[in-house]
């Protein structure tokens, strides 16, 4: 697992996505992270979380890995079903804040985890999900293969991530919001506005829905499909790990 030093400077990370620098920024914004996201998304983050939870369809008896879990807001939604949920994040600050807020939930645990080198056994989880975190990984393809490794045959992957609106008008409005509005709001509500400059750049550099689906198939996932949320500002991808031969 990548070591995350606590002395990382708070300058904006570049698109090389150096794990230590990105992790350091998330450590700094952890206490106000959920509130800031709600403001910046105009409250849509809660709707996206509901859609992701429904796509995962958690139920009692399942073991679920929630990556890029941050402070655990998405993990709590999954744990309400009675499933055994592991909230993983590569930011020590986020994990600490998650434990402080939700450490008393018996079927929810927090683990510091690098998505490219997950500290779990093969075929350990029924479902793996990651929300708004895959684009922050320095090697997304390797992360997709790691998620496949720790998922049971026949298990599922759910990815909720910022994407690219297919309609030209919405793309223009979205780009205007990200370029002109988001930086102003981030400076007002966040302890580290530079982290949200990085957010804007990482969204612009991220592939569209079809390209991500292709990368998931290349990593070994099958039955890949997606649907757009909020006119394609966010896309929800779902896939399945091929079943073992005697399960097919």
UniProtKB/TrEMBL annotation:
**Keyword Methyltransferase recorded:** yes
* Group of enzyme by EC: transferase
Q: In what pathway does it function?
A: Quinol/quinone metabolism; menaquinone biosynthesis; menaquinol from 1,4-dihydroxy-2-naphthoate: step 2/2
Domain of life per record? Bacteria
Give the matching InterPro entries. SAM-dependent_MTases_sf, UbiE/COQ5_MeTrFase, UbiE/COQ5_MeTrFase_CS
Q: What reaction does this catalyse?
A: a 2-demethylmenaquinol + S-adenosyl-L-methionine = a menaquinol + S-adenosyl-L-homocysteine + H(+)
Single GO MF descriptor: demethylmenaquinone methyltransferase activity
Q: Does the keyword Signal apply?
A: no
Please list the GO biological process terms of this entry.
menaquinone biosynthetic process; methylation
Tell me which PROSITE patterns the record gives. SAM_MT_UBIE (PS51608), UBIE_1 (PS01183), UBIE_2 (PS01184)
* Entry keyword set: Menaquinone biosynthesis, Methyltransferase, S-adenosyl-L-methionine, Transferase
Question: Binding of S-adenosyl-L-methionine: at which residues?
Answer: 71, 89, 114-115, 131
Q: What is its EC number?
A: 2.1.1.163
Family note: Belongs to the class I-like SAM-binding methyltransferase superfamily. MenG/UbiE family.
What the protein does?
Methyltransferase required for the conversion of demethylmenaquinol (DMKH2) to menaquinol (MKH2).
Q: What is this protein called?
A: Demethylmenaquinone methyltransferase
């Amino acid at each position: 697992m990548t070591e995350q030093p606590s002395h990382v400077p708070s300058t904006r990370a570049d698109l090389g996505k150096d794990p230590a620098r990105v992790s350091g920024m998330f450590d700094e914004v952890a206490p106000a992270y959920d509130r800031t996201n709600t403001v910046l998304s105009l409250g849509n983050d809660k709707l996206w979380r509901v859609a992701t939870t429904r796509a995962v369809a958690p139920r009692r008896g399942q073991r679920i890995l929630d990556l890029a879990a941050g402070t655990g807001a998405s993990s709590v939604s999954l744990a309400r079903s009675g499933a055994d949920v592991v909230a993983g994040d590569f930011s020590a600050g986020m994990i600490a804040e998650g434990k402080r807020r939700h450490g008393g939930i018996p079927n929810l645990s927090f683990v510091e985890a690098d998505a490219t080198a997950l500290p779990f056994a093969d075929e350990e989880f029924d479902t793996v999900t990651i929300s708004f975190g895959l684009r922050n990984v320095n090697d997304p393809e390797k992360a997709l293969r790691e998620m496949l490794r720790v998922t049971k045959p026949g298990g599922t992957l759910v990815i909720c991530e910022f994407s690219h609106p297919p309609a030209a008008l919405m793309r223009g409005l979205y780009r205007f919001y990200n370029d002109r509005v988001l930086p102003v709001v981030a400076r007002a509500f966040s302890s580290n506005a530079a982290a949200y400059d990085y957010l804007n750049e990482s969204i612009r550099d991220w592939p569209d829905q079809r390209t991500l689906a292709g990368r998931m198939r290349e990593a070994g996932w099958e039955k890949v499909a997606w649907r757009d949320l909020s006119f394609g500002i966010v896309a929800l991808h779902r896939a399945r790990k091929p079943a073992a031969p005697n399960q097919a």
